[in-house]
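so im writing up the methods section and need the Acetate kinase record in one place, dumping it here so i stop losing it
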Amino acid sequence: MKILVVNCGSSSIKYQLLDMKNELVLAKGIVERIGIDGSRLKHKKGKEKITIEKVISNHKEGLDLVIKTLTDKETGVIENINEIDAVGHRVVHGGELFASSVLIDDRVIKEIEANAFLAPLHNPPNIQGIKAAMELLPDVPHVAVFDTAFHQSMPEKAYLYAIPKEYYRKYKIRRYGFHGTSHRYVAARVAEILGKPLNELKIITAHIGNGASIAAIDRGRSVDTSMGFTPLEGLVMGTRSGDIDPAIVVFLQEQEGLTPKEINDLLNKKSGMLGLTDGKYSDMREIEEGAIANDPVCKLAHDIYEYRIAKYIGAYTAAMNGVDAIAFTAGVGENSPYLRENVVKKYLGYLGITLDEKANDCKSCEKIISTPDSKVKVLIVPTNEELVIARDTKEIVEKGIKELKLW
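--- predicted struct ---
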């Protein structure tokens, strides 16, 4: 079975074509700047990289170009679209309606649209991508895989906010959490690496990238996570503030005369590491270089960044009454020995963790980086959200075919 995985942003489409016989990525790429000058497709087939510059006005045109590139005699990896057996779509917000991945039909599309008010920047382009893909590939099943679904196992004590409950009933204001496919994949890999059943482990997964979140996974179920009603809550991120006193919003509106939209832009696009470095840096590689060189601005920003990570790890250790393993993943988590060492050595010694510095000195590797006698295992696990989407799609499609034959 060959599955096309699609992740549509407001002006981009990320894609992978996987052969699920051996879970091999046949090709992958990104369509950039949709509806903007300079639109292009960057395509990778094996070690070969191809860039196609072309006017791409909308998501349907972008997906059409993806399909043509995948089936082209020179750039492609399949002869025609009939070799694509199913399409898996990343959808950011499933609200309370979706606790698992689902086969897409008209009802599902309407329910995703109904949740768009919860993720106005993400769900609308996700929906555009689904509709475009279903027009271009009408004869194959399409599956929606939700970022929020994995965290639907959180108990009320973790997901409810202490505001009048009528706003939860009226607007569904609660903690949802994001990066669910990443946290689910990493937790499962931790169990495999340790050679223990997932349902016997307490795991903290730290998805640390430009956007970042931490999850407490107790015996395979998410019981808490740092992102909340939106991806703004929680850790300090590249341009997002993370946790702040909510009264700051009202204060800035009054003192600076800011509109709700301006406040939203301030907290999402001008804060975090960018704000802490006076608008100079949001890329952690630059900030880390500065911190290592003892630049005081970068050093302080990095100290705040790692401190917040450590606080959440401590909180989630308490929430689960213990922890067996901590896993770092995503762009920064996988590629920064400096961050991992600082977090572990400065803050996690009380857990009986000792770091193997030689093992930690690597990037984009999958391994245990704590010493054999460490009471809690610490790991690096590269995330693979596309593989989770492809696996869910395969499982749902095969289950549907089996049920159809039985009927």
